[in-house]
Amino acid sequence: MKEDIIPFYTPSDKVIVKSEDCYLYDSEGNKYIDFESGVWCSNIGHGNGKINSVIEKQINETIHHGYYFRNKLAEQLSLKLQELIGFKGGASVFLSSGSEAVNLAITLARYFTSKRKILKIHNSYLSAFGFGLLSNDNESLVNIKYNDLEAIDQIDFSDISALVIETGGASVDMVKFPDNDFVNKLIACSQKNKCLIIAEEVTTGMGRMGKWFGFQHYDFTPDMVVAGKALGNGYPISSVILNSTLADKFRQNSFRYAQSHQNDPLGCAIALEVIKTIETHNLIERASLTGEYFKTQLENLRSKYPEGVKETRTRGLMLAIELYDSINGAAISEELFENGFVAGFKLNTFRFLPPLTIKHSDIDQLIGKLDEILSRKRNSTN
Q: How many domains does the chain have?
């Protein structure tokens, strides 16, 4: 029964019985196009055959191990991630969730710098718990207002260990990308004050924005990168990747960090196949090109309904369309879901983070339905 689950969120009464590529099927035979990739995880599509084969092979070898053995899959994955980021001679660790990885990265920053606080853009979401938790009681956080250049000059960097930067927040403000000038100044001031730079790529990584990682849209190289979500395409695996400087410091003076599912071979095997699939099928380029097509269609809606559509925000396949307050977005969201479209909705804004395999025809169906709804609402007010 639905009542047997703690209601931290409120699902519909629909039950999914099958997931395949960009599509979900419920127990009543209804089909949905998933423009959320689950919780922004299934970048290479639900039920991917290559991933399923890797899972089957790996569970017949070994799923989990303790602290007495090396894991060659983890070592291979670390090297591959370092290659994608541009970290030569670095090191990685693999955990289960993005929140864990963010908090470990912050723990490492505090250890390396002997400072206690972290700096973040106020509308970025870092983690569900710990140092990155969004809470007024979190004394570890120093927030800088989004795109506020002057506010950077007012920051006291004396006890800030790291800038944790998310370059495309999909959660708090429903898809916003900080300006280049703002990011450049924030990075320069952080580095001048010997603060480490942590790129928080849990949502923005693995091709989501038309590059391997969101920070690659900007002119800086971080000291650490946190990956998660799409790294496992729905399987829970996350990572903290250190550059060579930090990796060498840690090797010289390390501390113990123990977590039950640290460097598990199953998750690492899956992540290696995710990366291979993205490379083999050119999904980075596809995300960029498909994102441009999607952007054009959203912009066409904005031009057609200037009284209803306030703004579009897009980068690769992370997109949003914001409506004016005069439009009942909640009713539109409900109608979209009832017609087979799964999309994020909050702050009168629709969020779209589909699998990188999404087809133009799927986008056309969504745009067609939005067009129909907005046209009907316009006519009803005339």
A: 2
